[in-house]
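Lab notebook, bench 4. Still working through the backlog of constructs that have no structural model yet. Next entry is a single chain of 171 residues. Request: give me the structure tokens for it.
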Amino acid sequence: MKDIYKSEVNSKNTLGLTNHQTDSSAGFGIDFLFKGMACVGLSFMLYGCGTTPPSNFYTLSSLPNSEQKVKETNCHDVTIAVGRITFPDYLQQENIVTRTSPNKLVVDEFNRWGGAISEDFGRVFALNLSRQLNIDSVFPYPVSENFDVMYRVGVDVQQFDGELGEIAYLD
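Model written out:
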């Protein structure tokens, strides 16, 4: 006579292994556990994708006129071209790099430059130089070959870093 509460079912899977189940647990074994874990894993993945912080984009700006020490000069007809500006390799990317110790750099995934750092730096450098020397004819790289330039200034940046929202160091 068949047991009312449990009856054992033997089945063979494709590998030839015998799977023992009871009628009362049919459908609630390994498949149920696997599907449950898959749902939990998918929930965690969707939650993780939904909480990515937005990226912030930054540009360099020149010092305000009030912070510039403008000198009176009689070099109003001088033209200066700020040449190519070189940076260390670690700065040649869109992500902002900060220094957390003398030998440790951190690449920030969510804080980025709004443009090419060398172009922004050249623009700001030329504007600040123009204000410092009280000369209107200071131009950032590239300058047209047909333009008559009296002086060319090259810039080789060795260090340009700091902490976000704090002082930046330039060498």
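Notes after review: The radius of gyration is 33 Å. The chain is about 20% helix and 30% strand. Flag for follow-up if needed.
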